Amino acid sequence: MAKKPKKAPAADGEGGQAEAPKSRKKLIVIAAAVLIVGGAGGGFLMKKRAAAHAEAEHAEQTAEVKKPAVFLDIREMVLNLSPDAGPDKAKFAKLRIALELKDAKVEGEVKPLMPRVEDALQVYMRDLRSSDLSGSLGLYRLREELLRRVNVAVYPAKVEAVLFKDVIVQ
Asked: What is the model's pTM?
């Protein structure tokens, strides 16, 4: 009888070990591909949601902006200012102011209160000096203070802004 050659058990072991690193590499490559595709898909969905959210916000803002603002003029005011330190001549300020309101409904609430608004402005501005009105910073401060005082005078209605049409200091 002829002897059959035996397979070496070491060869089997080597072949089994040789396949293990290849299968790990395949597993890593497949996992990386899944992560990349999943990340890209997730990013696409997030971008799509963000775009839909931004579009909804834009629609809300344009709906709010379409309402026209109402501007209510306050009669022209000429006032004498408090004198600065020193022997200065009397200084005067001439102002034309408009109030910005949200809509016509608020205008109906504010118009009957105009004497109260004018009184609040006159009382405050009579205490000002000409140096308080100099420069853009002075006008900004004046605008903020007038807005606060006007909103106190017309409460519960609300004025959105105080706008200067004309400011002259002599």
From this structure: 0.57
